[in-house]
# Entry
Amino acid sequence: MRTKVLLVDDVKFFLELERSFLDREGFEVLTADSGPAALVAARRERPDLVLLDLNMPVMGGDEVCRALKRDPQTGRIPVIMVTSGQKEEDLERCRAAGCDGFLRKPLNQVELLETIGRFLKTQVRVAPRIPVRVPVTLVVLDKDRTPAGAPIEAATVDVGVGGLYVERLDPLPIGTPVSVTFTLPEFTAPVRAQAVVVWVNRPFDKLKGTVPAGMGLRFVDLPQSVRAVLELFVSRSLAARRGKS
# Structure
């Protein structure tokens, strides 16, 4: 049985773009162009995941998300909110609605599939993640991307070119911007980058039981020099795996 994803957006262009990304990966794709239609489709079809636009007329995505989470029939379906805004209030609406993750428009295929892959048993990750446990320092950033708190010490679970997963019993809220600093094995210079929390795995309500409590971070505006280091680390690790097999 194919994995079923419900796409919800009032703009036809975005619906077709997202559908094209998922069709290539063999998903069963359902669509809805309004909030009320999304609720009907979700309750009738019971999708494995909902990709939901925040800003829609009549019934916004945050209202739809609340309704889905309140309904015992749909409450466990992961909901990824999509927003075109950069405003903090947009992210706060997503968090307050109880969504499981979020993405910003314009979407690209790698980010979309990588985010969906975190919530589904189906493996759709385009950019590979390498299991690696190293210390990482996180600093929460404010809206101007300047430090807004004390450093947080944690540890990575996996790292890839697109982002990393950090183990933490008390994960930061979805949408929180952070700076990250960590040093990869066999590299001397630390990786320093900015990222945003895109999903969380809470200790007593895990979305993905195979990984410890923590949060998934997606890199933002990654410098080319940092990307090159991450690509080299990933390629070396994959080559080492093939050599052992």
Observations:
- The chain has a mean pLDDT of 87.
- The two ends are 30 Å apart (CA to CA).
- The first strand starts at residue 4 and ends at 8.
- The chain has six helices and twelve strands.
